[in-house]
Amino acid sequence: MWELDLLLLPFLEHRYDELGDEDKASYRELITEEDQDLFIWLMRREWPEDARRRRIVQMIVEYAESSGHGHNRGL
């Protein structure tokens, strides 16, 4: 989904290298999820039940909101 790329790619490009090993693993695991689940989580409609997954989703959402990469969140 194009909308997901607007959130995931900037985070990958600007923040991924700064993450610890566990958060990097969480990101890699996250992007294997179904697009529908990612969309629901990244649009803040629901949070993942798994704490590690919830943490990386929150980091991505916060980055998007603070950096201006979330300006298309209403899509």
Structure description:
Helices cover 64% and strands 0% of the residues. With 75 residues, it is mainly α. The radius of gyration is 11 Å and the shape is globular. The model has no long low-confidence stretch (mean pLDDT 90).
Short description:
This protein has 75 residues and is mostly helical.
Key words describing this protein structure:
75 residues, mainly alpha
Oligomer: single chain
**What's the mean pLDDT score?**
90
Poorly predicted residue ranges: none
Main beta sheet strand tally, sense and closure: none
Number of strands: 0
Strand content: under 5%
Please write out the topology.
Blueprint (H helix, E strand, L loop, with lengths): L1 H13 L6 H10 L4 H8 L8 H17 L8
Helix pairs in contact: 1-4, 2-4
